[in-house]
Amino acid sequence: MSHYEIYALKFSGPFSSSGAFVMWMKDWETLCERNYYFWCLKSPDRTILVDAGVSPQLARDRTLPDYVSPARILEGIDVDANEINHVILTHLHWDHVDGVTLFPHAKMYVQRAERDFWLHDKMALRAPFTFFLNEQTRNILKDCDHEGRMSLVEGDRHILPGIECVLAPGHSIALQAVAVNTEKGIAILGSDCAHLFRNYEEEWPSALIIDMVAWVNSVNNLKSRVSRPELLFPGHDPLMTSKFHEIAPGITRLV
């Protein structure tokens, strides 16, 4: 089975906020930074994206700092957005999925429960949830669903050689982490199960958790599956930019 290389691609940031945003009920007076990422998995046989970032239109609407289109960033590792066939959507929050329009030929893998909640459940239209998914992005995802571009996953499932989706709810209804076969063993992109490496190290969540019990169980599960602790990656930590080898502007190789 082929090994994958894992690249973190920063499309916006840094953002500054109270430390309590990324460390629940801690560090209120401390300023903390975070970046916005998506990820690319490359093997000799295929190239896979994990999440899709944000489109230029939404980046303008939200005035995202130092934004670069995900399609443009990928050029730094010789990847053409039009040739992407597989995008794994870890969950359906705007900063992870709005950029799907940049990858018009891709099949998208998402947990069925995640799709059902955000696109079909009226609860998702209530005020607290619209923080995570705006109407514009929801309509984009509905179009993709109607076009048959969403491949629905139920629980843990190997979707491609060396790639497994791992159900990890807590931050979202049915967030899925991505377990990847690499030269160093099984690495896991946990997305927003943890915003920072520190969330995993201290087993302490961010403020953005909708089910705390599920989150604790998800962290235990991901830690038990990864080959070594340093191969469990969070969703927004600036260390993924500063502590790993830079391949091109905004791109670092994690494994």
Describe the structure.
With 255 residues, the protein is an alpha/beta fold. It has a single domain (5-253), classed as Metallo-beta-lactamase, Chain A, CATH 3.60.15. The chain has helices spanning 56-62, 70-74, 94-97, 112-120, 127-130, 135-146, 197-202, 212-225, 239-242; strands at 5-18, 31-42, 47-50, 86-88, 107-111, 150-153, 157-160, 163-167, 176-182, 185-189, 232-233, 245-248, 251-253. It has an 8-stranded mixed sheet. A 5-stranded mixed sheet has the order 7-8-9-10-11, covered by helices on one side. It is globular and about 45 Å long.
CATH H-level homologous superfamily name: Ribonuclease Z/Hydroxyacylglutathione hydrolase-like
Q: Which structural class best describes the helix and strand composition?
A: alpha/beta
What is the makeup of the main sheet?
Answer: 8 strands, mixed
* Major sheet: arrangement of strands: 6-5-4-3-2-1-13-12
**What is the class in the CATH system?**
Alpha Beta
CATH architecture: 4-Layer Sandwich
Write the H/E string, N to C.
EEEHHEHEHHHEEEEEHHEHEE
Whole-number mean pLDDT = 97
| Number of contiguous helices | 9
Task: Give the oligomer, counting copies of the same chain as homo and different chains as hetero.
Answer: single chain
Q: Write down how many β-strands occur, each being a DSSP E stretch of 2 or more residues.
A: 13
Gross geometry: globular
Our Rg estimate from Cα atoms comes to 17 Å
Work out the helicity level.
Answer: 25-40%
What number of domains?
Answer: 1
Q: Which fold name corresponds to the CATH topology?
A: Metallo-beta-lactamase, Chain A
Low-confidence stretches: none
